[in-house]
Amino acid sequence: MESGAGKHWTEEEVKALLSVWSEKNIRKQLHGTLRNKGIFIYIAKRLQELGVCRDWKQCRAKYKNLKYEYRTVKYAHNSGDVTKTMKFFHDLDAILRYGPVTQLAAEENGRCSATETQLNTSPTTERTQ
């Protein structure tokens, strides 16, 4: 499948991007990093392994667009407007809701929640997500 600069992302391509983006080390590197070309080169290579042919600029543009759309929908929901939706909102919410990678605490229902303080933790801290 050939994907040029002007081609729309397919649902499968977006899902592949989200799966790479959801990895702990990727989230950690992307959070708060302004000069992130190297990270997106790595993401593009990972996507190629998954059969998605996109360059790093396309990956970065899609990342930024998805984040913008997510924040727009999230703000609307917080303002009481539940009519605004997007296709991958729940996937993005799982990736973006905590911002930085923080120490996780298990809750009764089996889910994990981030603690309020950001900690310098070992790589084994976030195995549950």
The average pLDDT score comes to: 76
Major β-sheet, in short?
A: 2 strands, antiparallel
| Low-pLDDT residue intervals, each spanning 5 or more residues | 101-129
Derived from helix and strand composition plus strand pairing, the structural class reads mainly alpha
Query: What portion of residues is helical?
Result: 40-55%
Organism: Sula dactylatra (Masked booby)
Pfam families: Myb_DNA-bind_4
Protein name: ZSC20 protein
Q: What does this 3D model show about the protein?
A:
- This protein has helices spanning 11-21, 24-30, 37-49, 56-78, 89-96; strands spanning 104-106, 112-114.
- Helix 3 crosses helix 4 and helix 4 (56-78) crosses helix 5.
- The longest helix is centred in the middle third of the chain and has 23 residues, at 56-78.
- It has a two-stranded antiparallel sheet with strand order 1-2.
- It has a domain at 11-98.
- It is mainly α.
- Residues 101-129 have low confidence and may be disordered.
Quick overview of this protein structure:
The protein is mainly alpha-helical. It is 48% helix and 5% strand.
